[in-house]
């Protein structure tokens, strides 16, 4: 079997490449000229340098593969157009290029819980939830999903929606561990917030199950951990993994919004995307970012294997071993 992976140089995509290789797949990765190939170096991967906006290039890249895993995407942008271009237009280009591949078994689109937005109450959302994204990122992911599903009569499409993902190579979770290492644990989330998480290897299993399942064609699945967590439970797991006493710093929402406003303004003047902006604060301040995986368990046979405690321990050990911490 041959699989094309976009985003193979990134956190999630590189783990997917590793597991597909372990399972005997031939792997082809589309990368940019500026991509850092450190997670692919030394591995039996065919590297194609090109653009997701180059139609002829994409047709050649896809022409003889069995699976397309579209993992690449934009998670940080200056405006909605950045997200639309990086998440919707790239998906459209790949879908159109895939139409000429008669051997294609599955086109798997990596989406996000953000596409449907946070839950309205304390009940985890499931796949019947209508689209209610609250950020530009979420709106672009929703549009990418709608676009992909419009092709389901022409192509075998499956969409996978993870919540927040963590594990080795993740730079987002790493920022939290850096604060903890120096003895501080910033409190920015509501105490009553519930949320889902998924360890990266469990997500990769979900991607592959979705890819290999005929029943999954034309459908959408949440892939997450078995449990729903409170922020307090996540804090406890982090502190246990790093084994360090910390000072908890509760940051009032007004300060968060003020700092993000200034950050957004400064980066905008520089023509760059701010890592901290008003939409991001709005996103993390929601009280319900939890999702149900019952559909994936029933139809795909999905079963997460890594607990929060083990996942945090594995992640921190990797950060230490690789001298990130």
UniProtKB/TrEMBL annotation:
Organism lineage: Bacteria, Pseudomonadati, Candidatus Kryptoniota, Candidatus Kryptobacter
Name under which the protein is recorded: Nucleoside-diphosphate-sugar epimerase
Sequence ranges assigned to domain NAD-dependent epimerase/dehydratase in this UniProt record: 3-221
Species annotation: Kryptobacter tengchongensis
Gene3D superfamilies according to UniProt: NAD(P)-binding Rossmann-like Domain
Pfam families: Epimerase
